[in-house]
Amino acid sequence: MPRSLDLNRLKQFEPASSDVEERTTVANPTSPERWPSREPIRDGQISIKAPLDVIERFRGICKDDRRTYADMLTILMDAYERKG
To answer: In sequence order, what are the residues at sequence separation of 6 or more whose Cβ sits closer than 8 angstroms to the Cβ of residue 55?
Structure first.
């Protein structure tokens, strides 16, 4: 005979809101590290208008280093912030 479904156990799979996570962390700082979230990563998109030679140069750098545009942008911004 199949067991009955415990609906309360399913609540652990609901997405957690950020304020609930903050309260949990503050309330019990000795709690073990949580599993990575299954919530999707929030991505954004920008469009940059530039001369074609600059765009091709950027694409070439990314291709040569086998990096995504986002990864290369992060590297360049980090280098800029270290310099300044």
So the answer is: 48
The dihedral through the CA atoms of 8, 13, 17, 22 has a sign that is: positive
pLDDT in tens, 37-83: 788 888 899 999 999 999 999 999 999 999 999 999 999 999 999 98
Query: And the tokens for 23?
Result: 């309260």
Nearest to 76 by CA among 37, 38, 48: 48
| Cα–Cα distance measured from residue 75 to residue 46, given in angstroms and rounded to the nearest whole number | 17
Residues 73 and 61 sit within 8 Å (Cβ to Cβ): no
Please count the other Cβ atoms lying within 10 Å of the Cβ belonging to residue 9: 8
15: region left, alpha or beta (phi > 0 left; psi from -120 to 50 alpha)? beta
Start-to-end CA span in the chain (Å): 69
